[in-house]
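>> received
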Amino acid sequence: MLSLVGTAIGAGILFLPMNAGIGGLWTLIIVTALVLPMTYLSHRGLSRFVCGSGTPGSDITTVAREYFGVVPGKIVTVLYFFSIYPIVLIYGVSITNTVDSLMVNQLGMPSPPRWLLAGVLVALLTAVMVAGERTMLIVIQWIVWPLAALLIGTSLYLIPHWSLDGLTAVPSLPSAGATIWATIPVLVFSFSHAAAISQFSLAQQRAYGPEVAPRKAGAILRVTSIGLVVFTMSFVFSCTFALGIDGLGDAAASNLPVLSYLANVLHNPVISYLGPVIAIAAISSSFFGHYLGAAEGAAAIVRDVLGRSRAPISEGRMKIGVALFIFVTTWLVAVVNPSVLTLIETISGPIIASILYLMPMYAIHKVPALEAYRGRLSNVFVTVAGLVAVSGILFGLFR
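>> returned
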């Protein structure tokens, strides 16, 4: 649960209020009702996809080849990489903007050259990963639970600033539908811990055996999803009530996490310093979890490209090469500073949905090993949610 929560809490949650709350109270209530079944059922489906392999110990890329064949399996490997890799890029943008805002608005320092600030921050995050998985896990353990407590505490602390002005109006059906449609990819991104599901499922296989693992994984995922939805949506409601519609629009335009924006506009000493610290901790913890998935996918792609035409690359050289690739590309994107919400809506959300929502449902429908899970209403719900999230790329491009 700790690793799953740490993977899920990141930039998406800190940008979610600007997207989910902009439609007002009633749209936010509808989104909240959707997010729990979406989160739980989709991750349970992906875990079943991994656990259903006839060869226990196979990760998601290997299982995809077992189910679909070599060429489709390679396609899944590429999609898996691109469902996680853009998230790493998003965290490079987010942590650069957050630290820059902290230095300028709270510490009264001049804004440093963006290329230098981004390079230092991305290098520090990457260095933790290069130091080893054990170092990363230690850092996450020190971050996740205090982070969850701070998010809940911030939600309560904002109560005196609440105002429902402009939030209670009932939106028209087209307006509400458009807001929900745009929000679904952000929900998928914000609550996704898909990058950890493959290794999580393998750990359940090792601990409980292939027969019991799917049931045990489902139980853990259910509790994880409930916990994430309770404290995350409490945070979203509280930020929405504190900022209002106009404040949410200004926060989105600033390209800052909502806590950093609150720190700048409330002029409250607690929020001013605590908000950016929470944002930095959330971005860092989730960067680590998604870096692992991106590195795993990148290494698999390199091996597929090289095939047997060359001598195999050692694990050490592969690790360093992947780290350099992720560092350089994340640094460059952080310097360019694209809109985080645009990246989420048009790239990360739809691609994650294709892997997390649609691929397991297709496998359940087609693969004999997963036949026991067919004919359930939950499969229809996950498929529809996945299609809506994938179609979000069209909405993002043409709205």
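>> The longest helix spans residues 213-254.
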